[in-house]
Inverse folding.
């Protein structure tokens, strides 16, 4: 936030990292609690946060390393607003019940968190947002030439790994309609690797 000049890519990047940090904080809280009704509100909050993560990164992907970023922001701003408003509306309409706790049964020896209709919708929104982000980043990288491509390669590598893995994780969740704690742990590890590549990007900018 303090970097000058305050380019929209800097601001959206900072907000995106804060969203990822908040998501990891909630994920860590969930993993430190016993699996049951007590952790269900946190799971509902987590899946809502996960569906909001693509919004700032979609704005970032639309303006990062682009000469005509003003026009790109104007074109993508309604879409970004939709990725903020729709998840919040779904979270409110569903009465904060996007995830259901299913206890153990004779056929299922371990308890699970199953997606309710709102959870499926939130997860679908997240998948769509990740696809759009990766599409924009690919378009930016393909359009770059010379030293500009060299300067943005670390950022593209870090964000590519992060969002490709998140796309895999969100798709798995959507296919099986359940939340996998293992994937939540792995997302935190992938996020940490993205922070290292961001540091490399900062050094290359200098």
């Amino acid at each position: 936030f303090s970097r000058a000049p305050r380019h929209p890519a800097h601001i959206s990047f900072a907000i995106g990292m804060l969203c990822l940090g908040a998501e990891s904080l909630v994920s860590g809280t969930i993993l430190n609690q016993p699996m049951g009704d007590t952790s269900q509100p946190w799971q509902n909050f987590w899946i809502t946060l996960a569906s909001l993560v693509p919004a700032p990164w979609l704005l970032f992907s639309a303006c990062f390393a682009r000469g005509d970023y003003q026009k790109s922001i104007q074109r993508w701003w309604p879409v970004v607003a939709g990725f903020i408003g729709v998840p919040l509306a779904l979270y409110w309409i569903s009465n904060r019940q996007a995830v259901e706790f299913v206890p153990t049964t004779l056929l299922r020896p371990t308890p699970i968190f199953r997606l309710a209709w709102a959870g499926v919708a939130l997860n679908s929104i997240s998948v769509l947002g990740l696809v759009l982000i990766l599409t924009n980043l690919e378009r930016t990288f393909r359009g770059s030439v010379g030293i500009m491509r060299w300067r943005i390669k670390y950022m593209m590598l870090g964000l590519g790994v992060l969002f490709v893995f998140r796309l895999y994780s969100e798709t798995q969740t959507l296919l099986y309609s359940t939340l996998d704690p293992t994937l939540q742990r792995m997302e935190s590890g992938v996020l940490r690797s993205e922070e290292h590549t961001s540091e490399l990007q900062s050094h290359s900018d200098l």
User: Anything to note?
Assistant: Residues 71 and 79 are 14 Å apart (CA to CA).
